[in-house]
Amino acid sequence: MSQTSLDxxxxxxxxxxxxxxxxxxxxxxAREALPExxxxxxxxxxxxxxxxxxxxxxxxVGDAEDHLRDAKKWYTMGExxxxxEDADDLAEAIEExxxxxxxxxxxxEQVGDLTSTVPQLRSTLEDFGEEEAxxxxxxxxxxxxxxxxxxxxxxx
Length: 156
Prior knowledge:
DUF5790
């Protein structure tokens, strides 16, 4: 084997190690960018809408998607170059983080839907309560009028 091919093999091994390190680093950064469990569980809010908005903010995946994309990019390059001796752990970690990001984004979307639905529901319930109160007031007023009419007839 010539000196050049030995150097090429060493360079390839170094590049493969660097790719693995880059994938692992990007996966670590993706994990760090995801929200903490307590951030999603414990919220400071005065009302339901405030809680929903705080939850929606807490469910932001931040730069996790970008870091995952970097990890996938370097992983794909390494796989295609057959640079990794054993990359099953990387593939599993990528899939795990990808699934978690999808779950968090799905939850954020559902909270976003509630954020727009709850104020509408509140308004509808308030309108319904006002209509019901008006109907009761009118019924009482009509009953009073009928009672007054009956009393006038009895006097006559």
